[in-house]
Amino acid sequence: LPPDNFQEDPHPVLAHRSSPTNFGLHLLSIVTAHDFGWCGLEDMADRLEKTLKSLKELPRFKGHFYNWYDTRSLQMLEPKYISSVDSGNLAGHLLTLSQSCRDLAHHSLFPAFNLSGIKDTVALLKRATKELPHHGRAAVTPLSQLQKEIAHFEEQLSGEVPFASHSKWAGYWENLVLQAETLKDTAHAFASDQREEEKSEMMAWADLVADDVKSHARDFRKLFPWAEVLSSRDFPAEDSLEEKEFQSSIQELLSSGLTLAGLPGQCERTLESFEALRESRARSSAEGVYFDQV
Fold first, then answer.
1. Residue 180: exposed, middle, or buried by beta-carbon count in 10 A (0-12, 13-18, 19+)?
2. Res 289: pLDDT
3. In this structure, are residues 206 and 187 in contact, taking their beta carbons and an 8 Å threshold?
4. Which of 55, 202, 271, 277 is least surrounded by Cβ atoms within 10 Å, i.e. has the fewest?
């Protein structure tokens, strides 16, 4: 559950209490993070599920949440009371959350804003790096090396991105994960020569760049584990109706316009067309090597 607030001055203090309004805003912030491309679909769903599970464990009065809970023990705080304002806020937040989740099922998978979210994090890493004080002493990993890795990563993000087909996304995400890890390692190596109070923010943003990339790459691997395999195969020549239907279904499966709601049905249609093609080839006594490979 989200804390009510964080106090920075005069000393860092986290308020381990929360209210129904905080619950609702926390849930919407998770969906918003995904909308901006700051986290992937699986991470979003996992955070939502954990929060909702915690909410189900809280004591309530006739369905209403009490106004304050301890976020560590999940127990009510004194004095116990119900706030119609907070209950109304949470109800509105839950309605918005419900519609947001429904809408996600009909959005194209892996749109351009995924990369925009990663670019946001890289921009914050650059700012934190520029704000680091310069002590004039030699470093094992110089600042110029870190800046070079940031520029290289930005070049990859700003280059020509293969939005036309999910088959091309496979290699792109793998390369981006490797580059993000290299950037993270370089940032940590550079930070080893900095004072503790100076390097924490820079390291945090470097870690988040890698986390952002991994989050989206993990979604791709789970939703399209077959993308690279299908795109690298030499399909049979389009000599029959079955072969034409099979290739058409493959192209639909790799299309960038595919949605989460449409993915299961398209997978089933592709399997059906594949079975029809295999039976057709079996009747014509064709070689079965291709089908064994697929």
1. buried
2. 46
3. yes
4. 271
From 148, 145, 124, 151, select the one nearest 192 (Cα to Cα).
145
Q: Which residue has the tokens 């299961």?
A: 264
Please report the pLDDT score of residue 226 as a whole number.
74
> How long a stretch of residues is the chain?
294
DSSP state letter for 52: H
Beta carbons within 10 angstroms of residue 288's beta carbon: 11
Which H or E element spans position 6?
strand 6-7
CA distance 259 to 237: 29
Cis peptide before 3 (omega within 30 of 0): no
Q: CA nearest 94: which of 25, 44, 37, 38?
A: 25
Are the C-beta atoms of 166 and 219 separated by less than 8 Å? no
Q: How far apart are CA 171 and CA 154, in angstroms?
A: 17
| CB atoms inside a 10 Å sphere around CB 89 | 18
| 230: nearest Cα among 143, 177, 169 | 169
What are the φ/ψ torsions at residue 14 (nearest 5 degrees)? -100, 125
Helices (H) and strands (E) in the chain, counts: 11, 6
Token pair, residue 39, equals 């986290």
Region for 234 from its dihedrals, namely left if φ exceeds 0, alpha if ψ lies in -120 to 50, beta otherwise: beta
Token pair, residue 17, equals: 């209490």
Query: b/e map of 49-85 (b: 16 or more CB within 10 Å)?
Result: eebeeebeebeeeeeebbbbbebeeeebeeeeeebee
Give every residue of the chain whose pLDDT is below 70, as ranges.
Answer: 134-140, 159-167, 194-198, 228-240, 256, 283-294
